[in-house]
Write a structure and sequence with these properties.
Blueprint: H1 2-16, H2 20-28, H3 30-35, H4 37-50, H5 54-64, H6 73-86, E1 90-94, H7 100-111, E2 117-122, H8 139-149, E3 156-159, H9 165-171, E4 176-181, H10 187-200, E5 201-209, H11 229-240, E6 247-253, E7 256-261
Parallel strand pairs: 1-2, 1-4, 2-3, 4-5
Antiparallel strand pairs: 5-7, 6-7
C-alpha cells in the first residue's frame, strides 16, 4: 500500500513537471520521439491527463479495471496522435487479447464521426508464448462485450494464428491503412508477421510494432516497459536496413515503434 502511494505521488509530480503548452509543443515534434524517446514518452504520459478527450480517458480506465488490457496511458496518447494525423479507414490488429486497441480505434473514429473497418486476428484462447501467460476466459465473447460497453459496432474477428492460411487470407485481402502487430513475442513469428504485413500496408500507411524498444536508448520510468527480445530484434532489423526497405520509423512511444511505408 505504501509503495502504491509513492508511485501515485511520483506520477503526480511527473505530470506537473511541465506546462500543458510545453507538452503539446513537445508532442508535435515526432523526430524528438526518435532522438529522445524517454522525454517524448513522458510528454505522452502527461498528454493523457492534459489533453485527451474524456471518452478516451474513460476507455483506458475501463480496460485498467480487472486487468482487461495491457498497455500504458502514454500509448492511448500515441493512438490518438496517429489517428488524428492519418485518419485510418481500415485497421488490422494481430493479437487482439481483450480488444483494448481495436475498440480504441473504433471509439476514435466514432468521436470524429468517421467510418472505420476494424479487423482482428487472434487465437482467442489462453495459449501464450515464451514470455506471456493469459487467463482462461471466452476471449471472443469478451471482446464483443467490451465493444458493446462503448456502443461500438462489432469488429470483424478471425480466430486463427497469424501464420494460419485463413489469417494470411485476411491480411492479403486488401491494402491496409494501419496494421498493429501485437501477436506472438517469439522472433520467428514476429518476423513472419512483419514480412507479410509489410507487403499489405499501403504506401503512406503504418505498421506499429508492439514490445519492440528493448534495444533502443529508451529508458522506461517505473510504470513503463521496454519490450521483448523477439519483436525488438525485428524492429532493429527494419531500422538498420533503412536504405534497403520501404519503411521509415516516424514515431516511438515507449515500447511501441511506428513505421510508415514510403514506397
Amino acid at each position: 500500500m505504501f509503495l502504491d502511494k509513492i508511485k501515485n505521488y511520483t506520477s503526480y509530480f511527473i505530470i506537473l513537471a511541465k506546462s500543458k503548452k510545453a507538452v503539446l509543443k513537445g508532442l508535435q515534434d515526432w523526430q524528438k520521439s526518435l532522438k529522445n524517446p524517454t522525454a517524448y514518452y513522458l510528454d505522452a504520459f502527461r498528454f493523457f491527463y492534459f489533453y485527451l478527450p474524456r471518452q478516451i480517458v474513460d476507455h483506458k480506465n475501463y480496460f485498467n479495471k480487472e486487468s482487461r488490457g495491457f498497455g500504458e496511458k502514454a500509448l492511448h496518447s500515441m493512438w490518438y496522435l496517429l489517428y488524428n494525423k492519418y485518419k485510418f479507414e481500415n485497421f488490422l490488429e494481430i493479437g487482439v487479447y481483450r480488444g483494448q486497441v481495436i475498440s480504441l480505434l473504433s471509439l476514435l473514429a466514432k468521436i470524429k464521426n468517421n467510418e472505420i473497418a476494424i479487423h482482428g486476428i487472434s487465437p482467442f484462447d489462453n495459449i501464450g508464448d515464451t514470455v506471456s501467460n493469459y487467463i482462461k476466459i471466452n476471449y471472443m465473447n469478451d471482446v464483443i462485450e467490451n465493444f458493446n460497453y462503448f456502443s461500438l459496432s462489432a469488429p470483424a474477428l478471425t480466430k486463427a494464428y497469424s501464420t494460419d492460411d485463413k489469417a494470411i487470407d485476411i491480411i492479403c485481402s486488401r491494402m491496409w491503412d494501419c496494421i498493429y502487430i501485437d501477436g506472438s513475442h517469439d522472433y520467428d513469428i514476429a518476423k513472419k508477421d512483419w514480412e507479410i504485413c509489410s507487403i499489405q500496408v499501403k504506401v503512406g500507411g503504418l505498421i506499429v510494432l508492439d514490445d519492440s524498444s528493448l534495444y533502443t536508448d529508451y529508458r522506461p520510468p517505473f510504470f513503463s516497459f521496454k519490450g521483448h527480445p523477439g519483436p525488438s530484434k525485428v524492429a532493429e532489423e527494419i531500422s538498420s536496413n533503412s536504405s534497403g526497405n520501404n519503411f521509415k520509423e516516424v514515431l516511438r512511444v515507449g515500447h511501441n515503434r511506428v513505421f510508415e511505408r514510403v514506397n
